[in-house]
Amino acid sequence: MVKSPRSPVTTGTKRCRAKPQKKGEEFTAQGKLVDGPQNATNGVEKGAGSATHKRPRRAAACSDFKEKSVRLSEKTSVVKIKKNRMEEEEIDAINLTKLGPEDSPPCRKLIDFILHDADGNLQPFEMSEIDDFFITALIMPMDDDLEKERERGVRCEGFGRIEDWAISGYDEGTAVVWLSTELADYECVKPASNYKSYYNHFYEKAQVCVEVYRKLMRSVGGNPNMSLEELLASVVRSVNAIQGYTGTMSKEFMIATGEFVYNQLIGLDQTAGNDDEKLVTLPVLLALRDECKSRAEFTKMPLSISNGSLKIKDIECKEVAEDDDEKLARLLHEEEEWKMMKKQRGNRGVPSQKNVYIKISEAEIANDYPLPAYYKPSSQEMDEYIFDSEDGMFSGDVPVRILNNWALYNADSRLISLELIPMKSGAENDIVVFGSGFMTEDDGSCCSTAESAKLSSSSSKADNQDVGVPIYLSPIKEWVIEFGGSMVCITIRTDVAWYKLRQPIKQYAPWCEPVLKTARLAVSIITLLKEQSRASKLSFVDVIKKVAEFDKENPAFISSNIVLVERYIVVHGQIILQQFADFPDETIRRSAFATGLLTKMEQRRHTKLFMKKKAQVTRGENLNPIATMGTSSKRKAMRATTTRLINRIWSDYYAHHFP
Questions:
Q1: pLDDT tens readout for residues 500-531
Q2: Are residues 164 and 234 in the same domain?
Q3: Where is this region: Disordered (predicted)?
Q4: Are 93 and 156 a contacting pair, CB within 8 Å?
């Protein structure tokens, strides 16, 4: 598709060049340049203005030269301009692919192209605004019917340099990317296989620009009065519906490219129709740009200034020097995130969490817990196997009991968090966690775990010696959180029974608080989503912002800093996901927040635990370290194996006939 004067086009930031070649020159059959008619203005606008970038640093020139007068003859005073080999090859390729009379500058197509620097290293598309980049490609004529006839093309290596790039196709609905050198304009058709990751990322950004334009401009059926959420949802649906896309476009990607989209579209204001509003002041477009900027600012940690006495001139020079490096870092970071998103969303049809449990690394959550401490029993504890029901052992239906004044620890008796235990039944466990507490039979009542932190911190085993039987547990297999209203109840399971956890001991209260806090946070997020007209109306980022706005009196308050809130929610994500998975409303379970949280968790340090089929329980000796301590009672000898029938017969006999 050739750019026409009536077709809106946006371009990248042009660089300042020394003596650019005039676009009004034509090529002769011998490859020489002759003057041609100058083009009138064609309605092409700059998407980001005409700002210049700092050129690469070069060695300072000598300022102390010795002058010497010489006499030049008339012959030696004529300066001859010699074209370099690359420019001659580009001229030859343009002439060989010419199909007939054409306007100036000529237009060609590029197939199997790559963009690289002078050393041949591949470079991101947008970095051509900063440094000298060149093109290696198969140059083809501008005839769509000849794209497959590669023999009609001319292979040209390292030609250019690239002057600027442009995006067209706004009226047609399909983005077309152009590259311009001093000699011609080139339509990018197909990148080389080793350059696809660079180009495809840029092309998706270009397609977002086109879709946003068509959603907002009245001349193509758009509505400039839509809200940001409506714009994001509409563009995501439109892009994913395009042939060739596999549903990889997301709201997060759109927001990340918001500033790029804004800079491109505001250049179209002068070519817009009378019925269209100015894009530069359009509220929804400004909101998209500001959302992108705010997200970028939140990801940057505040820097401390060591020396405040800086000169204004020095600051300005430093900022210019850092812009190029920051842009390259940002583009590379965007590309890596885009690749990860493509990989994750490409496998979206296969539920990755069905057979895999993501367990966040202990190092990620260590800052939310106190320093290491060790559990020491204050009284003799009995093995829970003594209270085992043989019927439950073989049927798999274990009883439910209550555990008060409890604590959890590992094989070294070091206090440990419940978060390190998988919350899914059947997940392979890479850590062994034991527990101790006072056991009572379940009375069917519902009570929150550690209702008050102050109450739990003041509780002790000494105050409740008469409440239940002190026991130590076998390894904990799984745990769940039940909630309703203001109640949050934690239940753990061993091979013997389910235990509803009540108040922890004073020593263990700080290890219990983060789990309860995260559980309350999950309830608050579910309530937040239920208040919306659609559960997916709020993305992961939207929920993070709203959580950061909670009052300090709110039980789910984390911080007013968005970065800290996001970190906390992600590293404690399995607690939240488990509560979402158990929620009866499917729209909540499949909300955009839950999907975004899972994606963020996979970006953190984690371990993937595979789900296994439940095997028959085979019990051995209880390996709880309390069993080897002197304060614990030895396990009583197991009675002889019997059956219910034999037991009833002998019980009746002794009840009636024994003296």
A1: 999 999 999 999 999 999 999 999 999 999 88
A2: no
A3: 1-62
A4: yes
